[in-house]
Amino acid sequence: MFNINLIRVFTSCIVFGLTLVPHIHGHSLREQIDNQGFWSSPETEPFLPATDEHRAAWNRVLEDCFPFNTRDALSDHCMISLGEYFANEPVWSYYEHYFYGREGWRPLVRNFDLRRNHSRADFLNPDVPFWRHVFDDQIEQRQALSLRVFKDSKCTEILKTANAGMQVHLAEQCAARELFKYATYLSACMDASKLLATIQRVIPEEAPKYDGLNEFEMGLQLLEERVSDEALKSAAKHRMEKSYLHAYWVMAQCRQHGFILRPGRAVGSYTSTEEKLPWSVLNWSIYVPSHADEKKYHGLLSYTHRSLMKLAMKSGDDWAIRSGYLGRTYIAEFADDLMQRYPLLMHRALGDPLVYGGYGRAFPLKEHARHRAKAYLLLVEAAGEEFARSEIDPTKLTKEIKYVESGGLLTSPHSRAKVDAERLKRLRKSQEKQLLKEAQGELQ
Length: 444
Known about the structure:
This protein has 444 residues and is mostly helical. The protein is built from 19 helices and 4 strands. The strands form 2 sheets. Strands 1-2 form a two-stranded antiparallel ribbon. It is globular.
């Protein structure tokens, strides 16, 4: 069991972004991290400077909640302290939860489409969502409001792909900001329910060790078994502990309010209604086939969340746009408006060649690099060269920066027509391949 003062030192490093992992026996941190199953550092960088009040709130969490046992309920004092601390944490800090699993240090599988790679650049505009905006006394009112919006034909028209461009004039009528808050509630509750759920397994060699554990408990056990470096182990453990406490705090509120789906969506024999459902209907079994009655809610929740977020984004809500998924298919019919209104955000997204970044491998690598160069130049303009270098390494973009500075043209986001044409082309190729396979089968 950790001494409370030692816990305070380590968790302060994790929470407030101080350097935690020291020099490691003559090897580079990169090598050591790789050897221990860490493909990224368990350390975190603070998105916002911590105030004295916020540090004091975390110290109360340490006093009231540590050490804790996952099989015991957290005390009332602990829950009050968690509420005081997490209410003033930015939502984007919790879009990605990392845990130590069988594959090493990895993000928890994402449930909904959101932009997960927020950085300090997203906080250049300090108007950001905090958890106090989501978990307030308005959750049930937002559920009713969401149902009202889903019945409003002018609002649901926004979602149609044929309806090009952002519809900012409908932001108030369609309650865009409140829809974003309810979508964030759904996402947080879904992530928390998965993290806290007991995992069932049928792999014989793992059953004795891991059956009946949740993600957090299994991660702690794997850390002890596989990670020999104490600094790395402690950093990972305390980051996981913070995620666990956040999930516990979130789920305590989610259970009070349940969730409402977008009505009228059929899955098998079930059609979603306006009924309020408890979060306990979800099933998070791993390696065990889920019953259809339990599995259906996962897809319906994803559909509801996607509808809420896209409606809020296409209505022009700033928080939704800066939080939402920027995949090329998802934003095709309003990408031009996003480029005009959010150039830095879009060039950062278009510059990321990884699927993780939202736009994926939609361009040749040189086009992604040119967008990164443009993003770098915009960051220099907005926050100075030092800040820009902390976000994007310009030494790998020398040619691209010169190209952009000389007025070189950049590839635009794909339009809805282009996305649909590409989809049709893929479908035809698939059909041709299937016909060829069938013809070869007949010849044999």
